[in-house]
């Protein structure tokens, strides 16, 4: 049953990632990978909220559906890596560095917001 929960979440997360990435990137004609940045940052508060809920004992099987499945398929470290190397190799090192810094800062900040919200809800 666990694998089925993870699979169902991934079946939603992967197409949402692809469609969101394409929609966001289409609106921004720049070297910066706004689409991947957006999906990665969107998943961080979801995973933070879920982690806080699990810690508080308010969630268990949801971690497989939402955490492993949805957030696992929604986020993409490999694409982040590729979209950081590609501009760096093309001479746009500022965009590559900005992608790394912005992704880490925004992702950690969003995860912190999710955990803080969970602590407020279930503390």
In short:
The protein is mainly alpha-helical and 123 residues long. The chain has helices at residues 2-27, 34-55, 62-74, 77-89, 93-122. 85% of the residues lie in helices and 0% in strands.
What is the helix tally? Answer: 5
Q: How helix-rich are the residues, as a percent range?
A: over 70%
DSSP, total strands: 0
Q: Measure the end-to-end span.
A: 30 Å
Describe this structure in words.
- With 123 residues, the protein is mainly alpha-helical.
- Helices cover 85% and strands 0% of the residues.
- It has helices spanning 2-27, 34-55, 62-74, 77-89, 93-122.
- α1 (2-27) runs antiparallel to α2 (34-55) and α1 (2-27) runs parallel beside α3.
- The longest helix is centred in the last third of the chain and has 30 residues, at 93-122.
- The protein is globular and about 50 Å long.
- The two termini are 30 Å apart.
- 33% of the residues are buried.
Keywords:
123 residues; 85% helix; 5 helices
Produce the secondary structure layout.
Elements: H1 2-27, H2 34-55, H3 62-74, H4 77-89, H5 93-122
């Amino acid at each position: 049953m666990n694998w089925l929960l993870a699979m169902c979440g991934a079946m939603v997360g992967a197409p949402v990632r692809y469609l969101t990435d394409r929609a966001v990137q289409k609106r921004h004609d720049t070297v910066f990978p706004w689409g991947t940045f957006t999906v990665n940052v969107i998943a961080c508060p979801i995973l933070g909220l879920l982690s806080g809920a699990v810690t508080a004992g308010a969630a268990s099987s949801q971690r497989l559906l939402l955490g492993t499945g949805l957030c696992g398929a929604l986020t993409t470290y490999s694409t982040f890596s590729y979209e950081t190397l590609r501009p760096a190799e093309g001479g746009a090192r500022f965009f590559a560095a900005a992608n790394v810094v912005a992704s880490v800062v925004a992702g950690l900040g969003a995860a912190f917001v999710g955990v803080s919200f969970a602590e407020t809800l279930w503390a």
